[in-house]
């Protein structure tokens, strides 16, 4: 039987810190491996997703030491120093790893095969394969999905690519391939998305710039190594932000060292429109902006979420739906069809769980409408299935703060992909979650 959570609510408070950012940790390993010389990465996220990237970089011939779980030292091999892996590279549950490696490996002289777990093997890969082929790469999918076979040995050339969706993974894959391309690579987005790749490439000395919705990159011959401290993952902090709003004592909840890159913090803007009281106090910035957040218990009201904010809050919708269920009136989410191709179909899995806990809602092809209950319990106790989706599992644990009975959440092992220590931190901050068989 797979692991489950028993979440029994409580009252949250105190001060906490979430682990390092997943997106930044993946990128740091990749760029450090391609750099000339030694890089040091502190507060690295030692979650399963990033450990898959770490293992893949090692399999490609990069020496990586991990003196502590959250500290990594990488001996970069240079842009042309990677070697063919002796076996398929297993990306586990990590869509970011698979899509970014597709771009990175497209420019190599050797062939690679990328595989993953059952969830990842169902996810769409043509979104990276199509533009990489246009750059000259030979990439094969299996009816649009993994395994991904990257033949290698092709000369790449820069292209101008108009992305059909605002995907940081697609953008980043093209920028990584662009390091190996002849000429300029231009990626035009329909809306802004997280810009960690651009910031980190720039700090490695790569000429990359953003003009409106276009990102441009010129190829280089070498990357400078990194000395990086990874900020806390905003997407992990999101669970405790909502926990603080719907279930904190009068003193609220404080979260330190949270990454607040504006391309990640759409949830703050959405919640503020819903009436949330969240104070953001900037800390010293080291490449990426970082802040302490002070979250106060707040009376939330339902809103129509502006579609422009969707890509800036894309991973936070499961827990936003929990906030919406506690808000007065209706919350409407549209323009969020990308949620259907995440680690699970997050509209369907969240709707199934909301139904099991008695929350009135209507599913739309590209979103959901949720009727909130601002007073008293917003959820009844019951059983939900996360369908192996880490963020769905953690979202329903937060829901227990406003539930009339315990919530049992099935299939939660993947919480370790993004948030090792979730249960321990939850308990320390007052959210009663226990792991069960
Ligand atoms: C990520 C981009 C987003 C996000 C994912 C991480 C990244 O995916 O959902 O969790 O690190 O680039 P898309 O690019 O598919 O929107």
* Major sheet: arrangement of strands: 23-24-1-25
Low-confidence stretches: none
Overall structural class, as computed from helix and strand content, comes to alpha/beta
Bound molecules: shikimate-3-phosphate
Distance between the termini: 7 Å
**Amount of beta strand:** 25-35%
Approximate shape: globular
Radius of gyration: 21 Å
Alpha plus pi helix count:
13
Number of strands: 25
What number is the mean pLDDT? Answer: 98
Give the helix level as a range of percent: 25-40%
Brief overview, please?
The protein is α/β, with parallel strands linked by helices.
Describe this structure as you would to a colleague.
The protein has 437 residues and is α/β, with parallel strands linked by helices. The chain is 30% helix and 29% strand. The protein is built from 13 helices and 25 strands. It has helices spanning 22-34, 48-59, 95-106, 126-134, 168-178, 196-203, 234-247, 266-273, 317-325, 346-356, 390-399, 415-418, 422-429, and strands at residues 4-10, 12-17, 36-42, 63-68, 71-77, 89-90, 112-115, 139-142, 145-150, 156-157, 160-162, 181-182, 185-188, 208-211, 214-217, 227-229, 248-259, 277-282, 290-296, 329-333, 361-364, 367-372, 382-385, 407-410, 431-436. It has a four-stranded mixed beta sheet with strand order 23-24-1-25. The protein has a four-stranded mixed beta sheet with strand order 2-17-19-18. A four-stranded mixed beta sheet has the order 4-5-3-16, with helices on one face. The longest helix has 14 residues, at 234-247. It starts with a strand and ends with a strand. The model has no long low-confidence stretch (mean pLDDT 98).
């Amino acid at each position: 039987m797979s692991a489950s959570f028993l979440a029994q609510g409580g009252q949250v408070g105190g001060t906490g810190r979430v682990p390092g950012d997943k997106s930044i940790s993946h990128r740091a390993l990749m760029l450090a491996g391609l750099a000339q010389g030694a890089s040091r990465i502190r507060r690295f996220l030692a979650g399963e997703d990033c450990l898959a990237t770490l293992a893949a970089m090692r399999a490609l011939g990069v020496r990586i030491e991990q003196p502590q779980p959250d500290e990594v030292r990488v001996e970069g091999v240079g842009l042309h120093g990677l070697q063919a892996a002796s076996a398929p590279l297993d990306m586990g549950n990590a869509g970011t790893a698979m899509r970014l490696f597709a771009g990175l490996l497209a420019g190599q002289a050797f062939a690679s095969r990328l595989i993953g777990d059952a969830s990842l093997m169902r996810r769409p890969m043509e979104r990276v394969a199509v533009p990489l082929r246009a750059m000259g790469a030979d990439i094969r999918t299996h009816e649009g999905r993994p395994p991904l076979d990257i033949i290698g040995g092709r000369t790449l050339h820069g292209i101008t690519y108009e992305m059909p969706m605002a995907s940081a993974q697609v953008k980043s894959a093209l920028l990584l391939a662009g390091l190996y391309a002849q000429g300029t690579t231009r990626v035009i987005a329909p809306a802004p998305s997280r810009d960690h790749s651009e910031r980190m490439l720039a700090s490695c000395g790569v000429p990359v710039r953003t003009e409106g919705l276009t990102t441009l990159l010129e190829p280089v011959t070498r990357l400078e190594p990194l000395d990086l401290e990874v900020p806390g993952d905003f997407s992990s902090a999101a669970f405790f932000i909502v926990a603080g709003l719907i279930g904190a004592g009068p003193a609220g909840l404080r979260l330190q060292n949270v990454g607040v890159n504006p391309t990640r913090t759409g949830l703050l803007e959405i919640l503020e429109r819903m009436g949330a009281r969240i104070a953001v106090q900037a800390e010293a910035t080291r490449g990426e902006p970082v802040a302490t957040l002070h979250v106060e218990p707040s009376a939330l009201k339902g809103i129509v979420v502006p579609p422009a904010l969707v890509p800036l809050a894309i991973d936070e919708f499961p827990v936003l739906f929990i906030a919406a269920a506690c808000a007065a009136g209706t919350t409407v989410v549209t323009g969020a069809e990308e949620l259907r191709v995440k680690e699970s179909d997050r509209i369907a899995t969240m709707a199934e769980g909301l139904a099991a806990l008695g929350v009135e809602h209507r599913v739309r092809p590209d979103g959901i409408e949720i009727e909130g209950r601002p007073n008293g319990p917003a959820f009844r106790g019951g059983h939900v299935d996360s369908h192996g989706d880490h963020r769905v599992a953690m979202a329903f644990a937060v829901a227990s703060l406003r539930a009339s009975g315990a919530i049992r959440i099935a299939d939660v092992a993947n919480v370790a992909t993004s948030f090792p220590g979730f249960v321990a931190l939850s308990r320390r901050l007052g959210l009663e979650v226990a792991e069960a068989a």
